[in-house]
Write a structure and sequence with these properties.
Elements lengths: L4 E3 L2 E3 L21 E6 L1 H6 L16 E18 L15 E5 L3 E4 L6 E2 L6 E8 L14 E9 L7 E2 L7 H10 L3 E9 L4 E2 L3 H4 L4 E8 L3 E4 L17 E3 L5 E7 L18 H9 L10 E2 L19 E2 L1 E2 L6 E4 L12 H9 L3 E3 L6 E4 L2
Parallel strand pairs: 3-16, 6-10, 13-17
Antiparallel strand pairs: 1-2, 2-22, 3-8, 4-5, 4-6, 4-9, 4-11, 7-8, 9-14, 9-15, 11-13, 12-19, 14-22, 16-21, 18-20
Length: about 375
């Protein structure tokens, strides 16, 4: 397991492995051009089924979670020299040779017309980079590997709305007003069976919870690794390897599962019971017009989870195993967090990747 950790304003993050396949657009564009796309992969499109299908991530406490919207604002796509400047410090790279700015607003739950890097998922084109616009507009060098990075930024009235319609104006306006970078709008439905251990408090939880989680951390993803270049899980070579005979796709990938981990560990179990307990205690979430929000989770202890004077047992529902008659607690792995809201905000920053599961060095934007 890999512990997710910040060092000063930066952290090194791995990602969920969801497989990879070539995008059709690899051969549709001119040689030497970088096509930048974005995807939330199948989880953004189809949600988290319960019972789970195959090896897809799922909520071990029996919740099916669907996303109606996953709004993200991207900006500042950067290509640099020297991705391997320092083998031990991924933040170190060479000079920037190209930069394209947006910002671009996308609803990843809507998908797009392109094939994504993971099988069965969709992507949308963000922009393209034809050459070194910071270095005399020279062409990219063939058979050369360049460092690659991008930002997720606060929503802006100036953002290009790539797949948003008029129906999305109110939500994106809310993001702009509140300084959100990412906004989840979704519904969780309890579908667990054969859950252990039994507990009267879990039996009292609502069976449907509407949520609206706005995250406000502006983040830079630096010198990302690229699973298209091979390598082991969470340990791929860095950068984009440009070829002389075809274009190159750089997919900005957002993994929707990260805020729901129950520990500060990569691929930790996903849980929703804690959010349902808060919804129950605060009479929130019964409808889309009264959703539980991240602000509702402020002040909620997470070791153990406590809301309305109640705690929950650490239940799991088949096919998950491991339920124990102990209080449900989230594991910060030695770090200190004020409450459940802050813990989820921390985890959310780890969700940006390259080409499905490429890890990046990550810095907060002041």
């Amino acid at each position: 397991m890999k512990t997710i950790g910040f060092a000063a304003t930066s952290l090194l993050l791995a990602s969920t492995v969801l497989g990879a396949c070539s995008s059709d657009s690899d051969t549709d564009n001119p040689a030497g051009l970088i096509e930048v796309t974005a995807s939330g992969e199948q989880l953004a499109l189809q949600g988290f089924a319960f019972p789970p299908s195959g090896d897809s991530p799922y909520f071990v406490d029996g919740w099916e979670v669907k996303l109606e919207h996953l709004y993200v604002t991207f900006d500042n796509v950067v290509v640099s020299e020297g991705p391997d400047t320092s083998p031990t410090d991924q933040l170190q790279k060479g000079k920037d040779v190209a930069r394209v700015t947006g910002p671009w607003a996308v609803d990843l739950a809507k998908g797009g017309p392109l094939d994504a890097k993971s099988q069965g998922a969709q992507a949308i084109k963000i922009t393209e980079i034809p050459g070194k616009n910071l270095d005399g507009n020279k062409a990219f060098s063939a058979d050369t590997t360049y460092a690659f990075g991008y930002d997720i930024v606060k929503a802006s009235a100036n953002a290009q709305k790539l797949n948003l319609s008029g129906d999305d104006d109110a939500a994106y306006g809310e993001m702009t007003q509140k300084g959100f970078t990412v906004l989840y709008v979704g519904t969780a439905t309890f579908k667990g069976a054969s859950c252990t251990p039994a507990d009267e408090h879990t039996d009292e939880l609502p069976k449907t919870v509407h949520f609206r989680f706005g995250f406000d951390a502006a983040t830079t993803y630096v010198n990302c690794q690229n699973p298209d270049l091979g390598g082991d899980d969470h340990d791929s070579p860095r950068g984009l390897a440009l070829k002389s005979n075809q274009s190159t796709v750089a997919q900005l990938t957002v993994h929707p599962d990260h805020p729901f981990w129950d520990a500060r560990i990569e691929d930790a179990p996903l849980r929703f019971d804690a959010i349902a307990l808060v919804a129950h205690a605060k009479s929130k979430g019964e409808s889309a017009t009264n959703p539980v929000t991240l602000d509702d989770l402020a002040g909620v202890p997470f070791a153990p989870i406590t809301a309305g004077g109640e705690t929950l047992v650490n239940r799991t529902c088949s096919p998950a195993t491991g339920g124990a008659a102990t209080d449900l607690s989230y594991d910060p792995e030695g770090e200190s967090f004020a409450d459940l809201a802050q813990f989820m905000r921390y985890l959310q920053r780890s969700q940006g990747h390259l080409n499905s599961d490429g890890l990046c060095a990550v810095q907060g934007i002041e």
